[in-house]
Design goal:
Elements lengths: L1 H14 L2 H4 L4 E9 L5 E9 L5 E7 L5 E8 L3 E7 L9 E6 L6 E5 L30 E2 L2 E2 L12
Antiparallel strand pairs: 1-2, 2-5, 3-4, 3-6, 6-7, 8-9
Amino acid sequence: MIKQLVMAALLSAAAISPASWAGTQSVEIENVSVNNKQTWLKVKGELKGFGKNTSLTLRDADNLDVIFHSEIVKNKRFNAKVQIEDLIYVPCKIAAVANNNTTLIDSADVTDVSSCGGYSATLSGLVTDEPIPYASVSVTVNGIPLRLQPMKTVLIR
């Protein structure tokens, strides 16, 4: 009888697919704030159901610009600090993504910030020069060169 119960338990465990295991994983942001001097953006949270080698990416939840990326989060809890002067702007809402999987995401509003929000612009036009592989393009709007954040890609065809 005990042998049959053990076999039944093993067979039912084997029937669970890896896709259903992913359902036990989650990303939870507990707090997103700016310190009193408005110099640091702090994001605290927890990765639930992940192993020791998990990547974490913090993004602006409105336009998905990368704010912070860590290849390995060694424990379940994370406490990221990003220097505000390194950002183009302070996002109003932060999204945390685990292992670049958009189904493993949480977002939260930034608190204690004096001003927040990015900008958006739609640029259209035609490049009339011959195609040049790996060419770079700089964009200036109203005399101000736009600074692109690291990891942002501009594709020109």
